[in-house]
Design goal:
- With 286 residues, the protein is mainly α.
- The chain is 74% helix and 3% strand.
- It has a two-stranded antiparallel sheet with strand order 1-2.
- It starts with a helix and ends in a 10-residue tail after the last helix.
């Protein structure tokens, strides 16, 4: 029983990272119906950037993280303005092709700027806490706390702010939102900026918990889309629930079966859920 609870605790940590990736994809898909495949690779830039600032420039980790998230915000604006806006009202296949091109560009840029070596972001967080029979490292505790804080801040912003009302209105009925005076260009640009900022936060956590290397961003995007489908397309609560379920399933599979099959088992669980609820856990039947 203790081992099960320990694996669930571990799974909630990585599940929180998946939630951050999926939230970014969810708000983009909910408004523009764009499958932003480059999200993972662009997010990885933030992880590499933090490593560079900490190891090469000697910045404190917290300051480096804030700088990387600010860079992610700017990158999101540029991606929307330069890549997606020109094809926003075209055939969806154009946005799909742009997304694939952006993925290759981002992977190539990361490789060119930061090299092909695997890196781990140094944090200096070495303490281990005991919760009865369970153990929790200081790093994982910080990951959980930061993840919860970002999810709460994001949810409150979407639910309570004036811009959040505009985002939800645009996601529910684009034409009606435009008639009510919503500035579509400003909102979509802001959504991409928020999406990239959350992705960078997730990439930093991946880089601190495990490692960053070429190709990790693409895998992270696949996990994000899996969560998106599992939770329900465009559903923020669905992204939260789906991410945690995927993380816990992976941890249990790695702990009790084999880490080599954890991805396979997690996707099998996702397929079983979708067979019962094709619209996803929190999605609405169209």
């Amino acid at each position: 029983m203790v081992e099960i609870l320990q694996q669930i605790l571990n799974g909630l940590t990585i599940g929180g990272v998946y939630v951050l990736i999926a939230l970014g994809l969810t708000i983009v898909f909910g408004i523009l119906h764009i499958s932003h495949f480059a999200h993972g690779s662009i997010s990885m830039f933030g992880g590499y950037f933090v490593f560079f600032l900490v190891t090469e420039r000697g910045l404190p980790l917290a300051l480096a993280c804030l700088a990387a998230m600010a860079a992610g915000f700017v990158l999101g604006v540029l991606v929307e303005r330069l890549a997606y806006r020109p094809v926003r009202d075209d055939n969806p296949i154009n946005a799909f092709i742009v997304a694939l091109g952006l993925t290759m560009f981002a992977e190539g840029a990361n490789l060119r700027l930061f090299g092909a070596d695997q890196i781990v972001i140094p944090t200096g967080l070495q303490s281990v806490f005991r919760l009865g029979a369970l153990t929790l490292t200081e790093l994982r505790l910080y990951v959980i706390l930061v993840t919860v804080a970002l999810i709460v801040a994001m949810t409150l912003y979407i639910q309570r702010s004036k811009t959040g009302y505009a985002i939800r209105a645009l996601a529910q009925n684009r034409n009606a939102a435009i008639l009510m005076g919503v500035d579509v260009s400003r909102i979509t640009m802001l959504v991409f900026a928020m999406s990239s900022m959350l992705g960078v936060a997730a990439a930093i956590m991946i880089g601190a918990l495990f490692a960053i290397a070429p190709g990790v961003g693409e895998g992270l995007a696949i996990k994000g889309f899996s969560v998106l489908i599992l939770g329900g397309l465009g559903s923020i609560p669905g992204a939260i629930v789906g991410g945690l379920i995927l993380g816990v399933t992976e941890a249990l599979a790695a702990g009790f079966i084999s880490s080599a099959y954890k991805d396979v088992i997690a996707f099998l669980v996702m397929i079983v859920v979708l067979l019962v609820r094709p619209q996803g856990l929190m999605g609405k039947r169209s």
